[in-house]
UniProtKB/TrEMBL annotation:
The lineage of its organism: Bacteria, Bacillati, Actinomycetota, Actinomycetes, Micrococcales. Homotrimer. Belongs to the class II aldolase/RraA-like family. Catalyzes the aldol cleavage of 4-hydroxy-4-methyl-2-oxoglutarate (HMG) into 2 molecules of pyruvate. Also contains a secondary oxaloacetate (OAA) decarboxylase activity due to the common pyruvate enolate transition state formed following C-C bond cleavage in the retro-aldol and decarboxylation reactions. PANTHER family: 4-HYDROXY-4-METHYL-2-OXOGLUTARATE ALDOLASE 3-RELATED (PTHR33254:SF4). It is an enzyme of class 4 (lyase). This is Putative 4-hydroxy-4-methyl-2-oxoglutarate aldolase. Its cofactor is a divalent metal cation.
Length: 217
């Protein structure tokens, strides 16, 4: 099992975008997943759950199954219900759960902010849920085309959500470190006035049509 305690701060500094770009794969979640409150950030190990639309019983089971360092990653079918709120966040924090990512809705966003419990969802909704189907806990889920497995590394920030395959985690982290160092070197050249067109060799891709290309009459 990956221990993320030593890497958490670095992963957040690198950011979801750099980690995704460095992975060489489509390990990002759909842009519909947004933080429920400003400043929310998550680093943790994925515990996938599937829930029936409008039914949050699986999430209660997930809280019971999860341990310290886990992130509940929930396929709620994108249904705009309030699957998660203050009560569940308090219960989750007591077990060391690091956050929630759900294709569905959450509520009590002000309370979640005060608790500093990070939640990323595809909607905010006060609509209530039922508790009938226990769902699945720990089995892979697919969130809008992205497969998430137990133990995958979740990094979520204001830019989006990256899901790093656990078997490639060390490789991706090293690639992200290298990418960040290279970008900082590029920043120095840009601060000195160099154009991105020259820095990245984009001039060879062609020039736009503009009035400067037209003959003077």
């Amino acid at each position: 099992m990956i221990d993320l305690d030593d890497d958490a701060d670095e992963l957040l500094r690198l950011g979801s975008a750099t980690l995704y770009e460095s992975s060489g794969s489509d390990c990002f979640l759909d842009a519909a997943f947004r933080p429920a409150w400003a400043g929310a950030e998550i680093v943790g190990r994925a515990l996938p759950l599937s829930a029936q639309a409008g039914d949050n019983l699986a999430l209660h089971h997930g809280i019971g199954e999860a341990g310290d360092g886990d992130v509940l990653v929930v396929d709620g079918g994108g249904a705009p219900y309030g699957y998660w709120g203050e009560v569940m966040a308090v219960a989750a924090q007591s077990r060391g759960i690091r956050g929630l990512v759900i294709d569905g809705g959450v509520r009590d966003t002000e309370q979640l902010s005060r608790l500093r419990f990070p939640a990323f969802s595809t909607s905010i909704s006060i609509r209530g849920t039922i508790k009938q189907w226990p769902g699945t806990v720990g089995l892979p889920v697919t969130l809008r085309g992205r497969v998430v497995r137990r133990g995958d590394v979740v990094v979520a920030d204001r830019d989006g959500v990256a899901i790093l395959p656990y078997e490639r985690y060390a490789e991706i982290l090293e690639a992200a470190r290298a990418r960040a160092a290279k970008e900082e070197a590029h920043m120095e050249r840009l601060r000195a006035g160099e154009l991105t067109l020259d820095l990245y060799g984009f001039r060879s891709l062609g020039s736009p049509i503009s009035d400067s290309n037209q003959p003077v009459r």
